[in-house]
Amino acid sequence: MNWAGKMPEQSHISSNRPLVSVVVPVYNGERFLHAAMRSIFEQDYSPLEVIVVNDGSTDNTAAVVESISNVTHVSLQHCGVSAARNAGLRQAHGDFISFLDADDLWTPQKISLQITYLQDNPHVDCVIGHCRYFKEPGVQIPEWLPPKYFEDICVAYNLGALLARRIVFEKAGMFDPRLWSGEDMDWFMRLPDSGISMVTLPDVLLVRRFHDRNMTYQVRNNRSHLIHIAKASVNRKRENK
Prior knowledge:
Layout: E1 20-26, H1 33-41, E2 48-55, H2 61-66, E3 72-76, H3 81-91, E4 96-99, E5 105-106, H4 110-120, E6 126-135, E7 154-155, E8 163-165, H5 167-172, H6 183-193, E9 198-210, H7 223-240
Parallel strand pairs: 1-2, 1-4, 2-3, 6-9
Antiparallel strand pairs: 4-8, 5-9, 6-7, 6-8
Helix pairs in contact: 6-7
């Protein structure tokens, strides 16, 4: 299911150094955007195509984006993170696609480790890795969240830890614009239904920021989206029998 329409033609850069398109959706992210962008530009891999999608921010996000050179800036009316990701994908020309939320960070070798693995294993469609969390100063940890959440690393079923071949989005589709949260879970659950192969690397590739406005903090308010995602997965499995 292709929610966003046709993606542009891919790049023709040498297969030894393929272009990676990085989509950064942001909504009212002026506090953290510079740090996220720095973690992209400090990658030990190039070439990168960076596409920042401003989802109708009402703070100073637009000015922050405009102050950063070598990025493609896409502006939308506020329509949710799924639509923002799709808008970025429509602009992407890379042979490989990755994402980073504006409040998270990449480790410096994130892209190079993943590119190396995918080039060495052409039968694998996409890779993720591990992540660690850190708490923004002054933010209280909710009672339902175990303290070890910030002490251990964990497998990152998160788009910020993903590197995917372009064909993955042709097979599995893009993001459901009806989902304003949980769109990553919905998309990951579609992968096996679409015959997509995914491998988890042992490396920490993503550093996730925990603050009082991100989706993790508000997870208990997202049950309706989770129910929709679960029902959609069950229906796909029935259709594929």
